[in-house]
Write a structure and sequence with these properties.
This protein is of the alpha/beta class. It has helices at residues 42-49, 72-82, 98-108, 114-127, 143-155, 173-190, 201-206; strands at residues 4-13, 16-26, 31-35, 57-62, 65-66, 83-87, 161-165, 194-197, 209-214, 217-218. Strands 6-7-8-3-9-10 form a 6-stranded mixed beta sheet. The chain has a 4-stranded antiparallel beta sheet with strand order 2-1-4-5, with helices on one face.
Length: 220
């Protein structure tokens, strides 16, 4: 059974064919790494999987929902509840604490009470080793700590899949290694599913599957 299934994904920008009909199947609990040279279309593909961009051809199914058949408001709600995002730059809000940043997706989720959101945020930050840093602003955190807050934010709504775009690209070697091990701990202990675009071959080799994109095609 596939958690995520992309079929024939195509995307062009002007006359440039960025994605040329890509297929991908991801099972629950898998960690899939996508590698390839810059300009191969990796980030564009990830953004389409996350419904941040729409394809010009093809379909994306997440838990049997054909996501691009949803209306805009339904799609935005689906994205917030079902998909977690981790980017190279943590994109934390400077004026909010670590806990407040981690809780942000919950405040958009109308199914959760504020007390539940805060409880969930505290549990995640504690799990990620940040129990003593919850009240700190992003400027008071190291790069690795900021990225762990971003991971907590991605997990807040208990998404079915987490999409990560160069998640360790802005970290020093040790922080990057720590983040990589964290992903696999989250998979092993909590059953999370990851699709990760990365140039980091160490991370790619740790994954359950290492897929290569080149010139808008999935080679393996």
């Amino acid at each position: 059974m596939n958690l995520l299934h992309a079929k024939g994904i195509k995307r062009t920008y002007g006359s440039l064919e960025v994605l040329k009909g890509i297929d991908l199947e991801v099972k629950p609990g898998e960690v899939v790494a996508i590698v390839g040279p810059s300009g191969a279309g990796k980030s564009t593909f990830l953004h389409i999987l996350g419904t941040l961009d729409r394809p010009e051809g093809g379909q994306v199914f997440i838990q049997d929902t054909n996501v691009f058949e949803l209306k805009d408001k339904e799609l935005a709600r689906f994205r917030n509840e079902k998909i977690g995002f981790i980017f190279q730059f943590h994109n934390l809000l400077a004026e909010f604490t670590a806990l407040e940043n981690a809780c942000m997706p919950g405040y958009i989720n109308t199914n959760m009470r504020e007390s539940e959101i805060v409880k969930r945020g505290k549990e995640l930050l504690d799990l990620l080793g940040l129990s003593s840093r919850m009240d700190h602003l992003p400027s008071q955190l190291s790069g690795g700590e900021q990225q762990r807050v971003a991971v907590a934010r991605a997990l807040l709504n208990k998404p079915v899949v987490i999409l990560a775009d160069e998640p360790s690209g802005n970290l020093d070697s040790q922080s990057a290694l720590d983040l990589h091990h964290l992903f696999f701990r989250l998979r092993d202990e909590l059953g999370h599913t990851f699709v990760i675009v990365t140039h980091n071959e160490d991370l790619a080799e740790m994954a359950d599957r290492r897929l290569v994109m080149q010139d808008g095609n999935m080679l393996s």
